[in-house]
Structures are given as structure tokens and as C-alpha cells.
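C-alpha cells in:
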């Protein structure tokens, strides 16, 4: 059975459609009006081997806040739907990713409980015209709706573009590990509680 989902979310601030396939090859298509976010979403697709198609008409004439936050929310909803009852998945994922001087670590648990611990000190407030504070909005939205525990640490880094890119690459690789189907766990919920 395909582990895919399409979710639409419409508010007065944003109109979003997210399609994902967890068992994809990293095919990505974006039309969000926020180029730097698309560069980051591309890392999730490529390094997570997740097909992603994201379309957003958002109120970017104000700023990118609603668009970035709501894409995080809708992506989280799509993950929750695509992953279903979580039977047979690895559940935990982690990754360290460097990019030149920058190094980040991301650890994820498809725990069923939303929790974000993000320790990142961006060296700049903006990357081009992208506000680095919006990364918190994106990940908080994702965590709340995917129901995952997510720890993000930028361990080193001088260039803010590198800091962001290592975070999203590590996030993609951690996701890939966590949602991977473990044949030895086929049909089994990865928890002694019996449910997640
Ligand atoms: Mn880059």
C-alpha cells in the first residue's frame, strides 16, 4: 500500500496543497512564493527520498510568516496521514550533516506526542530576504501536526545559509530513517505500549 497523502488547508491567510510519498525518490515540485523555503524543502525531498509537491497561495505581500508556518502545519498533517498506524516503521531517526564549517544534528521520534527542542543560534537575522525566525514557526507547525518529538541542534556554523541547509538536510535524513519500514518489525507497532 502506498504511503502517500494529499492534504489541502485553506484559511484567509494561505491556501495550501501538499502531496507526499514517503516511499519516493526525492522528486520535488514547489510553488510557494518563498524561494529560500523551497530550497530547504528540496533538501527534505532529496535527502529524505520523499516525493514532495507543495503549492501555496499565501499573503506574502505582508511577509512570509503565514506561508512558512502553514506549510509546516500542512506538511505535518500530510506526514501523519501518510504514515498511518506506524506499524513496521523504525520510529526513531537521527542524522548529523556538515556543510563546510557548519554542522547540525537532528533527532526525531514518531512518538505520537508533539515536542520541539530547537537550539540554533543563527548568525544572521536574515538569509537573503528570508527571516531566520521563521524556521521555528515551520518546525513548530510540523511537530504539532505530525505528532513527533523533534530535537534540532546546530552544533557549529558561521554562514547562516549553511546553518539552515545542514538543519534541513539532517531533518530529511532523520525522517528517512524513522519512516523506513523494518522487515523484522512487519505489522508490529514499535512500542511496548502497543500504540503510538
Ligand atoms: Mn544552499
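Residues out:
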Amino acid at each position: 500500500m502506498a504511503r502517500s497523502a494529499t492534504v489541502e488547508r485553506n484559511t484567509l491567510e494561505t491556501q495550501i496543497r501538499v502531496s507526499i510519498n514517503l516511499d519516493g525518490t526525492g522528486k520535488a515540485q514547489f510553488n510557494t512564493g518563498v524561494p529560500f523555503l523551497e530550497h530547504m524543502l528540496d533538501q527534505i525531498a532529496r535527502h529524505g527520498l520523499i516525493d514532495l509537491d507543495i503549492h501555496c497561495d499565501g499573503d506574502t505581500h505582508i511577509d512570509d510568516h503565514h506561508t512558512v508556518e502553514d506549510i509546516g502545519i500542512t506538511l505535518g498533517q500530510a506526514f501523519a496521514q501518510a504514515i498511518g498506524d506506524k506499524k513496521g516503521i523504525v520510529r526513531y531517526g537521527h542524522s548529523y550533516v556538515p556543510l563546510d564549517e557548519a554542522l547540525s544534528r537532528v533527532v526525531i521520534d514518531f512518538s505520537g506526542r508533539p515536542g520541539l527542542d530547537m537550539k540554533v543560534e543563527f548568525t544572521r537575522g536574515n538569509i537573503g530576504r528570508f527571516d531566520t525566525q521563521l524556521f521555528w514557526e515551520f518546525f513548530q507547525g510540523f511537530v504539532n501536526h505530525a505528532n513527533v518529538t523533534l530535537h534540532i541542534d546546530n552544533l557549529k556554523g558561521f554562514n547562516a545559509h549553511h546553518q539552515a541547509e545542514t538543519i534541513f538536510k539532517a531533518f530529511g535524513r532523520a525522517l528517512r530513517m524513522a519512516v523506513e519500514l523494518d522487515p523484522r518489525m512487519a505489522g508490529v507497532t514499535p512500542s511496548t505500549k502497543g500504540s503510538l
